[in-house]
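Per-residue structure
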Amino acid sequence: MSSVHRRSWSAALALTAAALLGTVLVGAPAHAEDGPALKFTVARSEVGLPQPADRSDPPQINWGLDGDADGGTAEDVVVTIDASGISAFTDLDSTCVGDICTWPAHDIAPDGHAGGVLDMNAKPGVPLGTTGTARLFATSSNATVEEMTVKVTVGAVDLGIQRIPDTGDVEPGSTLNAPIRVSNSGSLVADQVDLTLATTRGLGFAQQFSNCTYGTTTDIPAEYGQSFDLAVCHLTTPVEPGKAYRLSSPVGIAVKPTALYEFVDYQIAAVATSVPKTAASTGPVLELVEDGTPPVVRTDHAQWQIEADNTADIEVTGSTAEVAPGNQAALTATVRNNGPADFNLVNSDAQIGILVEIPKGTTAVTIPPKCGVWTGGGMGEPTPGAPEYICAVESPFTVGETLELPFAVKVGADAPATTSGKVTVSTVYGGDLNADTDKANNTASLVVKTSSSATADPTPTATAPGTDTQSAGVRNVSAGGKAGAGASGSPTASGTLASTGSGSTPAIAAAGALMLLAGGAVAVTARRRRTRPGNAA
C-alpha cells in the first residue's frame, strides 16, 4: 500500500476512533443565520517539537477550513495564527512577520476547502516540557469563523508498534492472539494511549474488554466500500521514553469459517489525559505491562496479514439461445460462489476473472459494462466485435452469491446450425485461481442454435460500451446463501485494483489497475501478494 493510502487510512482510523470514544477533535460548524459559519480543523491539537530539532522534517500546525454547505460562499477570508504564546521557544516559518502568520484564503465555496501548514522547530537549549499555545482565527467580510488553539510542547512522544509477521495457513474457526508490543522512542511520557484495531470481514474479536469501544467503520479506507469491525481501546498506562510494553491480556482474533484473505489493521496513538472514560463493554480491563528492551520499530501503524487455509469454489454456467440468422441472441454467463470462503480481495491480486469466448459465426453487440476485450494477458477496452472478453468479479463475492453477465450477439447469415463459446473461471490476468481447488465446474458454454423458424430473443439489458452503469451485471444471493456488501453491484473492470464508486474493493495497487485497464500482460498466478505496511503520518 502506498504511503499516501497509508496516511489517509491512518487519518480515517484516528477520526473513527475519536468518534467511538465520544471525543471530537473538530466538529461541523453551526450555520450562522447572517452568513456562512466556518470552523477550523487541525491534524493534531497537540504538537511536540523534538529537542534537538529535526530541521529536515519539522513539526507542523496543519490547519483546514471547509466551506459551509448551508451558508453560501465565505468571502475575503484571511487566516491568522497568533504564535506569541510559543514564539519564545520556537523558530517559526520564515514567512511569518514577528509572531503573526497569515494566509489569504480568499473565497471558500460551500463545497470548497482552504488549508495551510506552519513549520516549527524548538530553539536550541530550550528545556523539555516547555509548552505554550498558538491561536488560530480568521476574518471574513460575510462569514463567522470559530477560533481554536493548538498546544505546542518542546519534546515529543514517539510511539511505535511492533509489526506482527504475516500468518498463513490459519484454520478457519480458530483464534489467533495478536502479540501487540508498544514502545516510546521519544523524550516525553505518553500519559495515555489509544490502541485501534480494525479487522476485515473474515475476522472478528474473540473477546471484549471493558475499556474498549466496539463498532464498525466504512472509512478504512472508503474505497473498500465495505464495513470493518473496529475496536478502540483506551489504555491509561503511562508509556515512558525508552521502554517497551506488551498487552496485559491477549487480544484474540477470531478466524471465521468464511475467512480467506484477511488482515488486522492496528495503530497506537497518544491522547490527552482529558479523554473521558466511556461505558464500552463488559470484561476485563486491557492494560500495558512493561516488557523489557524496546524493539526497533519505525511505525505507529501497521497491518497483520492473515491467510486462512480455506477455499472458495467458484462455479460458472452458461445459457442457450435459438434464433434465426441475422437476429440477436441473448446469452448469459452466471457465476456463483459455493464457498466455504467469501472471496474478498483486500490483500491479494488474485481477482476472479471470467473469460468469455463469443460463439463463432456471431458478433458481440453489447457486453456487460465492466468487461473488456481479452488481450491475452489482461483487459482491454470494452469494444464490441472482439472474439473474447474478460470480466472481473467484484469483491467481496460472498458465499451463495451469484453474478449474471449478459451478452448480446448478432448471428451471422452463415453461422453454423449450432455454435458455442467457452466460459472459463480464471484471474483477470488469465492465471489459475488458486483459492478455487474444485476445477470441475470452472467451465461452461454459451450456445447459439440457428433456425429459420426461430424468433429473435429479446435484446438483453447489457449496456453499450462506455456507459458506466450498475444495472447490467446482476448480483444476487441464492436461497441459503448470505448477503454481502455490494450484493447489488456489478462486475468492475478493475475490481480490487481500483475503485469505481460503488465497487466494494480497495485500490491496493494503482499501478496494477493501470496495467489491467491497458491490457498489460501480467501473469499473476500466486495465491496472494503481501502488502508491506508503510509508516503513518
User: Anything to note?
Assistant: The chain has a mean pLDDT of 80. Residues 3-20 form the longest helix (18 residues). The two ends are 14 Å apart (CA to CA).
